[in-house]
Amino acid sequence: MRATVRKVLFATAFAIACLPVVASAQTLRAEEVAMGLENPWAVAFLPQSRYLVTERPGRMRIIDAGGRMGTPLAGLPEVAAGGQGGLLDVVLDSAFEQNRTLYFCFSEPGGAGNSTALARARLSRDASRLEDVKVIFSQKPKVSSRLHFGCRIVESRDGLLFLTLGDRFQRKDDAQTLDNHHGKVVRLTKEGSPAPGNPFSGQPGALPEIWSYGHRNSQGATLGPDGRFWMHEHGPQGGDEINVPQAGRNHGWPVITYGENYGGGKIGEGITARAGMEQPLHYWVPSIAPSGMAFLTSDRYGPAMKGNLFIGSLKFGYLARLELADGKVVREHKLLQGVGRVRDVRQGPDGLLYVLTDESKGRLLRLLPQ
Predict the structure, then answer these.
(1) In the chain, how many domains are there?
(2) Is 187 among the domain residues?
(3) Burial of 36 (0-12, 13-18, 19+ CB in 10 A)
């Protein structure tokens, strides 16, 4: 009897020890760069210490080094703003200082509804407008929905573009089939063509731009220190995930999930694992509603934070700092609690972290070490 009790206690202690540790809040000081942004979604860093920011209602504007906001840039396409849709992510081309090229994604109207689209443009010399705007990719099919657009863009080290695409909510089962773009990550050339070497190229019935599938709604993506593509995605009620998608892999949604239906109740078979479907690197129950994602590569906050992963929480209004070891999350710190709905987090050219809060009077914040 005593031996059995000892075994149970040991097993329980071992299980607890294997769980990620949620640590008490660390101290960072948030300095306001700009305020009064309407539901800002993404920030990119321009030369001369300027910031390019998107606002979900359909505006893109430049904030100067002193925090003064310029008038919205001219030249944007029509945006289907409403619900979760609108003007979403923006990134600069890796050769921006030579070609002034940028990429942005948005909810594109048309046909029977809308879908996520990726556009390429050039910032004019006077920084007043976008020129040579061209939509290079549109998610198919378009549906009538205001939900789950995904829409994070990452340029890989070999100059290709990853784009995350949501499942559009009511079309969640599409995430398991390869004849559509719902619940997928696609990998494209900078002209919008399927990238060479994509896993489903030449497979009958499969779209050649698909990189991975079985995703729900990713609003955060970045490159890891080793150049691999990382993303996170919203679960339903619980089950937000961090994933490192590899070519051709199925991440399981909506067949497997650590979440449940809104209001309670299992999704599908109510299972969390199945052969041939990937497990998340990390997941949250309850959901934190993650958005934005960045690895810290600088020394600006000391050695303890270098290499950490930072993710915003829309639901609880904090910045998550995740420590990693051997490819696993081993500790989570909640920073800036109460700061507001964190929509984006990026490391700037100065090595500091910057955060956008998604509110009607949203802010761009610079995080300073204490």
Answers:
(1) 1
(2) yes
(3) exposed
CB atoms within 10 A of CB 129: 17
**Is the residue at 293 inside a domain?**
no
Please identify which residue in the block is written with the tokens 């600069």: 92
Q: Give the domain CATH number at 242.
A: 2.120.10.30
Helix (H, G, I), strand (E, B) or coil at 2: helix
Containing structural domain, residue 234: 39-285
> Residues near 74 by Cβ (< 8 Å), separated by ≥ 6?
128, 129, 130
Catalytic residue among 148, 181, 232, 251: 148
148 is catalytic: yes
How far lies 40's CA from each of 116, 149, 168, 191, 214, in Å?
A: 17, 16, 21, 27, 28
Q: What is the pLDDT of residues 309-340, one digit of tens each?
A: 999 999 999 999 999 999 899 999 999 999 99
Cis peptide before 109 (omega within 30 of 0): no
Q: What tens digit of pLDDT does each residue of 40-77 get?
A: 999 999 999 999 999 999 999 999 999 999 999 999 99
Q: Could you give the dihedral angle defined by the CA atoms of residues 338, 91, 236 and 356, in that order, rounded to the nearest 10 degrees?
A: 10
The pair of structure tokens assigned to 202 is: 């030449």
- Per the domain annotation, does 337 fall within a domain? no
CB atoms within 10 A of CB 62: 18
